[in-house]
Amino acid sequence: MKRCIAWCLAALTLLFCCAACSKTESLRQVTINEVTRSVFYAPLYVAASKGYFEAEGMTVEIVTGGGSDKSMTALLAGEADVALMGPETGIYVVNQGQKNHPMIVAQLTKRDGSFLLGREANDAFDWEEVRGKAIIGGRPGGMPYMTLLYVLRQHGLEPGKDVEVISNIQFNLIGGAFEGGTGDYVALFEPVASQFAAQGKGHILANMGLESGEVPYTTFMVRPETIEKDAEFVTAFVRAIYKAQKWVQTATDEEVAEAMQPYFPDTDLATLAAVAKSYRATDSWTTDPIMTEDSFTRLQDVIDGAGELTARVALPTLVDNSFAQAVVKEVG
Q1: Closest to 318 (Cα-Cα) out of 1, 88, 35, 156
Q2: Percentage helix, strand, coil, to 5, in the chain?
Q3: Using an 8 Å Cβ cutoff, are 190 and 278 in contact?
Q4: Helix/strand/coil for 124
Q5: Residue 23 reports pLDDT greater than 60
Q6: Which of 6-10, 80-84, 170-174 has the highest mean pLDDT?
Q7: Could you give all domains of the chain from N- to C-terminal order, each with its CATH number?
Q8: What is the pTM of this model?
Q9: For the residues of 173-214, what is the DSSP string, one character each?
């Protein structure tokens, strides 16, 4: 009898394992190339950890590109199914004359997600204090860099004349450069900005997102053939993102932190919750994936001000809102 029970248990275990393997094998493998790893992209990590992608029949691998140019290259080369990056990269590709350029199918963030850090604490920081100093600001043509230029000019400071903006350091190395003594100030994303502040490596002085106003800062792009040949996949992907966006709106900061932590194993829950609270307070995350005409125009104003816009791009040329509009109508 005992032997019979043991055989039955073994058979059930084998059946369960086979069913689990079958389910995993039936899920579509999707590679997402993100421009950088940041709490700023919380809804993406929520969609993965809360099972929204799996519910749509896919399992995702999130690869960090280390720059919009690298993420775009990975997408164009077919190394990624979807890329999360700044829409300015799409504008550049369009203006280079590429006909079959990637299309934006969903928007994730609507403000700059970086913070200005200095070497000294200053609760009464004034932008006039950066006059004659040097700021590490990312790479030319990238949104962090162009937003910094925009904000400086908003405060009557001309980059290159009143302020030195260091732009020859790779995006994912600027924190280390600042820590090593380069520059007087640096613009950093979370959770690095808060980690630097907690460790005394720098002091947060200004929120760049509040300083610059709303722009479509980070978006999901796919190749045109994906839209043409696999519209159901695009719809499913955008639906998962929208569900995550809705969840984030009602979840507590602690719940958002817990959902993100698998993607930030070296960051404690308290720091993640504090960063989530900061981004929520500044209204940085979009509540749905639809991009507006006004925000797209403002984005090009920022790019134009940085001298990087060779020609204006019409929204329908680069943005396909049909998937986002459909899932918002469906999900509610």
Answers
A1: 88
A2: 50, 15, 30
A3: yes
A4: coil
A5: no
A6: 80-84
A7: 26-111+215-331 (3.40.190.10), 114-212 (3.40.190.10)
A8: 0.84
A9: GHHHHHHTT--SEEEEETTHHHHHHHTTS-EEEEEHHHHH--
